[in-house]
Amino acid sequence: MLQALNSSFAEGTVPVLAPIHLDGSAAYRRTVAKYYIEPTLMEAQELNTTNLLGSSLYHIKAAAGVGIAASTAVKDSSQWLTEAAIGQPKQNIRLNFDTGSSDFWVFSTDMPASERQGQSAYAPTNSRSSVSANPGQASTWNITYADKSGAAGVVGHDTLWLGGIAVKSQAVQRASFVSQDFFSDASATGLLGLAFGKLNTVKPQRVATPMENLIAQGRLAQPLFTAKLVDGTVAQGSGGHFTFGFIDQDAFVGQLSYTPVDTSAGFWEVNSPYLRIGRNGVDIPRPGALSSSASLAKRDGQPSSPLAPTLASLVPGFARRKGSCGSLSTKDAESVSKELLSWGQQIANGLASLFGRSPSSRDRSSAASGLSVFDGSMQSGLVPQHSAIIDTGTTLMLVDDETVLTIHQQVKGATYSKKHGGYLVPCKAQLPDLFFMIGSAYHGVPGASLAFAPVEDNMCFSGIQSRGTMDRDIYGDVFLKNNYVVFLQQAGSEQIGIGWRPDILPKFAQ
What we know:
Elements: E1 4-5, E2 13-17, H1 24-34, H2 42-45, H3 49-53, E3 83-86, E4 91-98, E5 104-107, E6 131-132, E7 140-144, E8 150-162, E9 165-178, E10 190-193, H4 210-216, E11 224-229, H5 232-235, E12 238-244, E13 247-248, E14 253-260, E15 269-271, E16 274-277, E17 283-285, E18 289-292, H6 311-314, H7 330-341, H8 344-355, E19 364-366, E20 372-374, E21 382-385, E22 387-390, E23 397-399, H9 401-409, E24 415-417, E25 422-426, E26 434-438, E27 441-445, E28 451-456, E29 459-462, E30 464-466, E31 473-475, H10 477-480, E32 484-488, E33 495-500
Parallel strand pairs: 1-13, 4-10, 5-9, 22-31, 23-30
Antiparallel strand pairs: 2-12, 3-4, 3-8, 5-10, 6-8, 7-8, 8-9, 11-12, 11-32, 14-33, 15-22, 16-17, 16-26, 18-21, 19-20, 23-31, 24-25, 25-29, 26-27, 28-29, 32-33
């Protein structure tokens, strides 16, 4: 049974400092480069490729560790940062803890100071516990994004300190080259990947991630870590915390809802089959192949077939209008979305056909917030398979075009901006709350989170954008900062648990 403790006293808690400055457009462009995404919305296709991928911003996530560590503010940055350390004596470093990658790399003295941009560097020669490979036998690593930015170097071993806990003989990917547009922020030292090891880029043989070593070395009471990210614009810079080895009982209310993780691609990937816009909104099936509800208990990661009935087949006339990749122009999108507003009964009828009964008669249970959710059994048998990656290393939420267009049609004044490369919403508008089903329970994003960051003329870059050609959604910090998330890394039984947060519940419309 998983143990919940109070984070104020439990070893394994690291506080997080939230960002002071946010740039939504740059964060979106960086994710497009990270995941090699090609745009599908017509306006995005018209953007100059360099303009779309050329941002130097990489959104840095807060470090989480075992033990207690202090965090410091970083002025004019778009980062959640805290300190870890490497070596004996300890050399302090600031890291991005990223559940969307599996490399642990840092700026190092292997890279000349003249080529760094003010970042502090790990010096292996100053550490008594550092072990370097013999010349000619060192492993190497290379990370490259779609915009041709990247980093590369060699691999050594040293003691990694996460809070007060030592991870011995941890492989440290020491950077000897980092392109200026890959990682330009002077306040960050590197990145620590928390995805599954198959994504590690070390050659000729991958190395164990810090989380894998924490488990193997018996440093954790339970094989898990958790994330509670807090919006610094609300909490005056206090960014929440990560815990390793235990669940913070004070970070959520009610019960945690668990769902299996598909690890086949190396990500923390879950099924997100339905969307609800507003607490009393219609349950909208997401695009994806139908599979039995048993798949909610265990997935093998293999593609499902045949093609599922989604909005395109449940509602006559809802179809992709442009392009072989399913591209939609804004004009077509507005037409489609307006039609959706008058198709509520048809959608309900389609759901009744899909599930064999009316949604209104489906068994329900209540979350702590009072939001109705499907019961865990999914007795109707078949659900859409719509994959989403839970990624602390991504700032925004990137979802399929149908979802992007449908959501923004509900916002008066929302518009697509060629200049900024994404959807904008009025900063002070009454924005709809959104609820995404993960596994068999809904979890929310308050409407205010749609207004991610100001751009111009009282307009804000939206927190939800298109995933383009990506075949999975990416649920980044816009989702994570509104939910408490548990990452259970138990071999063969990997799960994600999500809970309602008491500090977020008042933000939802009642």
